[in-house]
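Project standup — Tuesday

K.O.: blocked on the structure for the chain from last sprint. Re-posting the sequence here as requested.
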Amino acid sequence: MSPFAIRARTPVPARATSRAHPVNRSLLTAAWILVAAGVVAQIAFPYTDGGNLVLTVASVAFFAAAVTLDLASMRGARAVAAVLIVAGGGGLVAESVGVHTGFPFGSYDYTGTLGAEVLDVPVVVPFAWITMAWPALAAARRLTGPGRRWVTAVVGAYALTAWDVFLDPQMVDQGYWRWHDPEPALPGVDGIPLTNVAGWLLVSFLMIATLDRLIDKRALDALPIAIYLWTYVSSVIAHALFFGRPPVALVGGMIMGLVAIPLIVVLARGRKGDRQHADQ
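H.V.: unblocked you, prediction finished:
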């Protein structure tokens, strides 16, 4: 069991009905349709030698839109603004500072092949932060339980950073960005410096801690958790079988698995408990 499964007990209760935002079923349905579209786009990656610009942008756009609609349907405009500003805006600022100064990720630059740019950062990049910031927070909340904000922020930062162990090698191999000093690196994740991991942990911690205070809690956020688990499973399979990076599949599988596998266990136990309660 992962050391992050600290207080995975009962689901986090929703706020009082009088304060809860009514669920917009139409928006929620549209969000799930966009998730399905994102999955289809990513399944097509192996048939294009690891992805191309159209599929890369499409998958990010579908998932980012799904995350945004999920928040709109369950929590309203305030939550949407939070993820757009904190994850999208914060990701853009962090990446722009990183490109121009080398802090906090290390020295790197974009190659100009990832589409239109703002502040020397491809527009698609802040949307990628949006795509996974909310799923990482939802996963962390499910594992840590209520009333432990700092623990949730740490687990969420780790959950978000773990995803990049898969993402960075794929994008570097596709020529979308390059590292000037790629060593030392994680064992098995050649070409991606450890400074990148440190930078992701720092930025992710600030991002997740802020979002945790701005986005209210619910019993179970199924859509962002589904995105997180799909990303884990599909990334392991893709690197192991299609992208020519079996070591990344192994290392990333273990690192992200410290969140994903306990999360699956917690969800399974929750469903079992619900069935037992219904039978009584």
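K.O.: great, moving the ticket to review. The mean pLDDT is 90. Residues 162 and 256 are 5 Å apart (CA to CA).
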